[in-house]
């Protein structure tokens, strides 16, 4: 399994870091088999798996439940679990308690939290407690209500300057990596060059030290809105729907199951039974 220092070396050696989300056992297994460097149990879980319209509804129990399944599927991959909405702003102590719970219950290697400003002391506190922290800047889905929707961030010089400063402060606070979501690629370039820790981009261009995508988006699994920055690496939704429709049809018209898909009792047992 790779470690946080491996990721820093990868950045130094210009080797890209790969990350995708997973929320269950089979997906985690696929990710590990594909050689993924890191798996994120993202709170995007709320939208792509649980059907909520934002990440606000995701709980600690949800993250633990799915984090455990991912761990079982990918025993040798660096797993990161998102701290859900409202679990790291109350107090430093409650943030630490929640992070410890996520680490101990799921067996993850790191937690991820959105934001800088009042989150910086949290990053520092968790890091001092021995918990690797991945920061998350740019578009912060947990703050979509405050930001006024899911929009590209850091487009003005002033906003970009603040993001560069925030990224440096996250590194200073001890973060082991920074996710950059939905920011202009030029800004990703600047931030990546300014930091020793790796940047992991999503909708942030090619200049990040690594890339992350939401599993359901990259393979088109589900009916949710897929953002513009996602490339369709597979389209599993169509064959899944076609297969399910065929199953319904074949059960209705008696094509399935046949003897081939049934169990047969031996003749002598049948005569013993019915005489
Ligand atoms: O929850 C998630 O999937 C994330 C990624 C978008 C980085 O935080
Ligand atoms: Na997230």
UniProtKB/TrEMBL annotation:
It is an enzyme of class 2 (transferase). The active site is at residue 181. Its EC number is 2.1.2.11. SUPFAM superfamilies: Phosphoenolpyruvate/pyruvate domain. One of its GO terms (molecular function) is methyltransferase activity. It catalyses: (6R)-5,10-methylene-5,6,7,8-tetrahydrofolate + 3-methyl-2-oxobutanoate + H2O = 2-dehydropantoate + (6S)-5,6,7,8-tetrahydrofolate. Its cofactor is Mg(2+). Catalyzes the reversible reaction in which hydroxymethyl group from 5,10-methylenetetrahydrofolate is transferred onto alpha-ketoisovalerate to form ketopantoate. NCBIfam families: panB, PRK00311.1. Mg(2+) binds at residues 43, 82, 114. Pathway: Cofactor biosynthesis; (R)-pantothenate biosynthesis; (R)-pantoate from 3-methyl-2-oxobutanoate: step 1/2. InterPro entries: Pantoate_hydroxy_MeTrfase (IPR003700), Pyrv/PenolPyrv_kinase-like_dom (IPR015813), Pyrv_kinase-like_dom_sf (IPR040442). GO terms for biological process: methylation; pantothenate biosynthetic process. Homodecamer; pentamer of dimers. Binds 1 Mg(2+) ion per subunit. Keywords: Cytoplasm, Magnesium, Metal-binding, Methyltransferase, Pantothenate biosynthesis, Transferase. It comes from the Bacteria. It is found in: Cytoplasm. One of its GO terms (cellular component) is cytoplasm. This is 3-methyl-2-oxobutanoate hydroxymethyltransferase. Belongs to the PanB family.
